Amino acid sequence: ARLAKTLADVTGGDLFEIRPQTAYLRDLDWNNAKSRSSVEMNDPKSRPAMAETPRLAGYDTVFVGFPIWWISARIIQTFLESADFSGKTVIPFATSGGSGMGKTVELLRSSCAPDTRWNEGKRLSSHASAQEVSAWTKSLSL
């Protein structure tokens, strides 16, 4: 959330929080095979319901941010499948304790319309400075 706020401040963009209908609480223990995060990540068809559906009319470029949980959290796939990204550019960004983007973008692409344009995205620190985020966004070909 902190990184998304910095990005919105730097770009002048709007924020939309991807929230599950049932909040994640203390059920995010990746070391526990029975925790909600582990159960969702081990089921490729898992699509947690969202609290609110995004409205993307009028947006040409959408930055999609998330923490890396092995790959992106399954709710990110729910988000991408819930809105029409046809003709839009999606730029993923992620935070992680150490993992890079890996195959995340490849996986997420399959959740959008075929004519969605994708940027490779970037993993950043949740504490990335406005200068660092600005330098990244300026490096993008939008």
Helix content: 25-40%
Give me the number of helical elements: 5
**% residues in beta strands:** 15-25%
Mean pLDDT: 86
Radius of gyration: 15 Å
Task: Give the CA-based shape.
Answer: globular
Count of β-strands: 5
Largest β sheet strand count, sense and barrel closure: 5 strands, mixed
End-to-end separation in angstroms reads 23 Å
Class by SSE composition: alpha/beta
Order of helices and strands: HHEEHEHEEH
Q: Regions with pLDDT < 50 over 5+ consecutive residues? A: none
Describe this protein's structure.
The longest helix has 10 residues, at about 1-10. The chain is of the alpha/beta class. α1 packs across α5 (about 130-140). It has helices at about 1-10, 35-40, 75-80, 105-110, 130-140; strands at about 60-70, 70, 90-95, 115-120, 120-125. Strands 1, 2, 3, 4 and 5 form a 5-stranded mixed β-sheet that branches. The chain contains 5 helices and 5 strands, in the order ααββαβαββα. The two termini are about 25 Å apart. The model has no long low-confidence stretch (mean pLDDT about 85).
Give a brief description.
This protein is about 30% helix and about 15% strand.
Main attributes of the structure:
globular; alpha/beta; 15% strand; 5 helices; 142 residues; five-stranded mixed β-sheet
SSE diagram, text form:
Layout: H1 2-11, H2 36-41, E1 61-69, E2 71-72, H3 74-82, E3 89-95, H4 104-109, E4 117-118, E5 122-123, H5 130-139
Parallel strand pairs: 1-3, 3-4, 3-5
Antiparallel strand pairs: 1-2
Helix pairs in contact: 1-5
